[in-house]
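Notes, p. 3: input format for complexes.
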Amino acid sequence: MRIAERISRLGTETAFAVSAEAAAFAAKGNKVYPFHLGDMNIPTPANVVEAAEKAIRDGKTGYCPNAGVPQLREVLAADVSASRGVEYTMENVVIQPGGKPTIGKFFLALMNPGDEVLYPNPGYPIYESQIEFHGGKAVPYGLIEGEKNFELDLDAIEDRITPRTKLMVLNDLQNPTGAECTQAQFEKLAELVLKHDLYVLCDEAYFDIRYEGKSSSFAALAGMTERCVILYTFSKKFAMTGWRLGAAIGPKEIIDVIAKINVNDESCSNHFIQYGAIEGLTGDQAQAKQILAILKERRDTAVDILNSIEGVNCFRPNATFYLYPNITGAMKKKGLTDYDSMRKAYLHKTGVSVCTRLHFGRALKGEKDFYIRLAYSGIDTPEINEGLGRLKVFIEN
Ligand code: PLP
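Output follows (397 residues plus pyridoxal-5'-phosphate):
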């Protein structure tokens, strides 16, 4: 079989392999506590489901416009304008089958072969995959432990900019670390973006998964609206991961290009579910709020137990549904020296299934500490208590 050369540059999400391993372990009759995958075990709000069902019955089963149902583009533009403090109209919005497709389409629209693209590492693995697949050069920047949360390594970002750097990926409210920029850090970053004439993919997948404070968008800074494409998704706020619905939001010139890519790729996103999304944005918000309340309780339960374990230090991020504890001390205590044996020991001895730092990119030079990532979006509070309780006993004994 002659597979095309470009496929050798296509990466993947290795977290799915952890899923398969956990499923195989569970199939043998073992109890598994699934902290590995960022899927959700919370139902989509009933009003959203009902609106989509009604749309099917009303015959919204043919193609719709390539850029999405106009009413959805309008209400999403209004919603994002209000929450970010930016003025978007429907011309700035192109609907996508999920948040993820915005990543590859952003690079297709703006990256030429050989262009350098800054991306976060540890970070969502699809950035590196899509940059390299489309012929760019992926240049990682790190995240560092601050006082209360992880922060972008702004010095590293500046150091890595060269005349070939054209684009940057910013995932504020970050997967896996929960990192969040302060306004001062946003401003410093905006200076760099202007100075070096960069365009930015603002992955705001977790903008609305927020428990304290208020999210803000890098796209709202002076001069940035023209340079940013926001990755928006319905997956998390409305627990719609499997529905596959999101959007790219940004300057009309770029959005038009992405709409043309839609024509070539999927023609349009699933028609009737867009009516569910309209209801999600404009209808009763009680269940969307309930999703946040459930997640917050899970976060607090998990953080409290993790921090009670000898050799584990965990921040309590205000947003996302991930935790990224430093487990260097716990590794030493158990005499573990590599990620794979640690992850397997946790699974086989306690049933706790996690991802490690290495599922979010290759470790950067100088990185010495060990981290795991726990997602609490797919596991209930009693199971969090039980699983992490077992992990504590395993690590401390
Ligand atoms: N961006 C980040 C940082 C994510 O963590 C995810 C999903 O986990 C996505 C984008 C894509 O999500 P979806 O395609 O479900 O909208």
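The chain has two domains: 5-43+287-396, 61-282.
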